[in-house]
Write a structure and sequence with these properties.
Length: 104
């Protein structure tokens, strides 16, 4: 199954993982300690983030470290931008209409 970045950020746990690794690389056990779920459940979230290209997992000795790869979030920024333009235009029209009503 091919996943995309929107699926990755749809889950609050995955968003929190992205936030944790965006500041510094962390090993998988350190990440798992931040959540009240099993290690296999955290590993599943990490696998999805890896499939979507938002993290890279690097093995160093016996440990696996997760690194953020946030350039994929640009897809979301582009998607949101089109709606931001729509809402800004709509709200500008509403503001003009309300000012016109106030002047009557």
């Amino acid at each position: 199954m091919r996943r995309d970045v929107f699926q990755a950020i749809a889950d609050p746990t995955r968003r929190e993982i992205i936030g944790l690794v965006s500041h510094e690389s962390r090993n998988v056990n350190e990440l798992a300690d931040n959540f009240e779920m099993s290690r296999p459940a955290v590993s599943k979230h990490l696998r999805i983030l890896k499939e979507c290209g938002l993290i890279k997992v690097e093995k160093k000795g016996r440990e696996r470290f997760c690194h953020a790869q946030l350039d994929k979030l640009g897809e979301i920024a582009l998607w949101v931008h089109q709606y931001r333009r729509f809402w800004n235009t709509s709200l500008d029209k509403l503001e003009a209409l309300l000012k016109e009503e106030d002047n009557k």
